[in-house]
Amino acid sequence: MSAxxxxxxxxxxxxxxxxxxxxxxxxxxxxxxxDQAAALSDFSLSLARLxxxxxxxxLCLERLAGLLPFTTLGVMLVDEADSSFFMARCSPxxxxxxxxxxxxxxxxxxxxxxxxxxxxxVLAPVAPPAAGGLPRSRHLLHVVTTASRTRGMFVAEMDADxxxxxxxxxxxxxxxxxxxxxxxxxxxxxxxIQAMNSSLKSEVACLTSSASELKADRDSxxxxxSEKSSELHEAMGRxxxxxxxxxxxxALLAALNQRLEAKVELRTSALFRKIxxxxxxxxxxxxxxxxxxxxxxxVSHELRTPLTSILGFAKLIAKDFERFxxxxxGSPLASKAERLLRNLDIVEKESERLTRLINDxxxxxxxxxxxxxxxxxxxxxxxxxxxxxxxxxxxxxxRPNVDVRLELPASLPxxxxxxxxxxxxxxxLLDNALKFTMEGSVTVRASVDPDAMMLICVEDTGxxxxxxxxxxxxxxxxxxxxxxxLKDKPEGTGLGLAICKHIIDHHGGRIWMEHAPRGGSVxxxxxxxxxxEE
Length: 534
What we know:
Blueprint: H1 3-7, H2 16-45, H3 54-67, E1 72-78, E2 85-91, H4 96-109, H5 111-118, E3 122-123, E4 137-145, E5 150-159, H6 167-241, H7 246-325, H8 334-369, E6 377-379, H9 381-391, H10 393-397, E7 402-407, E8 415-417, H11 419-435, E9 440-448, E10 453-460, H12 467-470, H13 496-506, E11 511-515, E12 521-528
Parallel strand pairs: 7-9
Antiparallel strand pairs: 1-2, 1-5, 3-4, 4-5, 6-8, 9-10, 10-12, 11-12
Helix pairs in contact: 2-3, 2-6, 3-6, 7-8, 8-13, 9-11, 11-13
């Protein structure tokens, strides 16, 4: 038996009266479908008045509730960010947990994916009787899709003893959901077009206003220069010819003073207008910053997969080349083989560096957009510092002349914050200290400052940071100036300290850099103490 035959059967009745009732019911359902399609078309024609898909979904559920004997109805929509499904509407709302549980189960057993492919009504098998003697029920799934894009999934529940559904009823159900999908698609496209039009209008208006103001200022300056030149020539002639004209010159100067005051007042008004325009431009820049963060997050996610493939295949090629193709030491191809292995090693290292850059961009984008998950919990400074030192163990092995020291009092209280994020900050500070310190020491200190905050400092004896770089060291994409002996150091992403600053700011602390007394740098940060430790 096919999936469709197992879901719906139409029981025949040989009597004429039953056939007549069937025809009347079919006519009623067809008229109801036309009425619902017309209502959804009205929504499509009034998209400018809609702020979201909720009115469309409410109308769809209302129509379907009157069409079929459903006890529970719900509509799931596709999240544009990650293509996942979420329950947008449920009627009645109290049935949401049960309906969501069915959806989760249908995803596990493949029924949900089957409904997505079928693009028609799919009826789940009858569920066994529930505890407490509750009546049995069965569920219906129907994808909400257009010809080119899936917009969501309709989920409904009905009594297991409800009469079987006819093909006409199911066709009308498909028509209603297809019309709803078309209306949702039209709403989405309309909202995107409105946003693009609004942005273009703002930019055109700003450019037009700036051009007009520049032209007005230029004309005003030309007229003012011309007037001043003429007045100065006339005054010099009057002074040379007649002293008696002094009073007239004073009167003229008084008139000029009044005109200058008017000019000052005019310029003051123009300055206020400029301030208002700058505030509007600032709002636009914030919006562009949000768009940039969303774009960076999307591009970074898309780059991760090919980078992982490049890194994995480069390692696999190098391994297979050494095992099967590398010639012996006396072969004339030995030098070329070594060069190929060095090139593959460069590909691996550059892929790893680009992966770190993408991870840093993703972390920074999630923090700036407010999507970074945070866990606020008590944390031991001893454990976090120990884990950070273990994470930079490879860097420590490359610095045999650098001594790592810990100055952590035994009575140190517990701090409060996200352990993983604080660990990320300490790893970054320790890695930077070891990277730029060829010999000497790197010291980690911790104490409680006068403001009852946990103070953690990482001091190194490296070359230090110039005063002009101190204020820019926490800026995004800023890298320390590698001069002299630092030319051979690998470049970082320029995002590590910027991410550290965002993390510490989120915890209500602060992070800064000081110059060590004996040379080098000291990076300090503060964290709140755990509850009851103040």
